[in-house]
Design goal:
This protein has about 220 residues and is α/β, with parallel strands linked by helices. Helix content is about 45%, strand content about 15%. The strands form 2 sheets. Strands 2-3-1-4-8 form a 5-stranded parallel beta sheet, with helices on both faces. It has a 3-stranded antiparallel beta sheet with strand order 6-5-7. The N and C termini lie close together (about 10 Å). This is Adenylate kinase. It is found in: Cytoplasm.
Length: about 220
Amino acid sequence: MRIVLVGPPGAGKGTQAAFLAKKLSIPHISTGDLFRANISQGTDLGKQAKSYMDAGNLVPDEVTIAMAKDRMAQQDAVNGFLLDGFPRNVSQAEALDLALKADDVSLDAVLDLEVPEGEVVKRIAGRRTCRNDSSHVFHVTYSPPKKEGVCDVCGGELYQREDDSEATVRNRLNVYHTQTEPIIDHYRAQDLVVTISALGKVEEVTERALAALKDKQK
């Protein structure tokens, strides 16, 4: 299957993408991984992306699109893929449509993970990260540390990253609503969108997603 995964920040896209890609035996392609791979390998596209990122600028659509097209053309993606974080806006969605049409293939589904805005804020703003090791992450509601403000693993101080502050989360949500959410209508016009609730346990959301995608399999 060829799938685009979309949803607001905090919807659990990365987690669901990993599970779904494994279940469906297709590669999980994320923009973050694309950038890291191209930059670490020193490709021309990676050098272009790095120059923009080093200057504190957004990587232009044409560079992101070129990276995605290159990755989708690799052998493991011939029979399908799951795109996570791309397309990020309507112009990227239109470019993806053209790229797939040129290869005489098309998307099977656009999986829309739906989460109430209040829950998104709660999920992200409640995160607390260890100053000693950023891989140690807790949540004030869902996975609190045994002792408030102290990492269970190493005893380091837990703090709220600036990226996780409520003001930053609401700004990210605004960007999502204005830039990314319109792609849902773009794909709805092609009868590709399946919307599911992303509330509940990870396994429950995965099963919900697989059931919804089954109806779209060709």
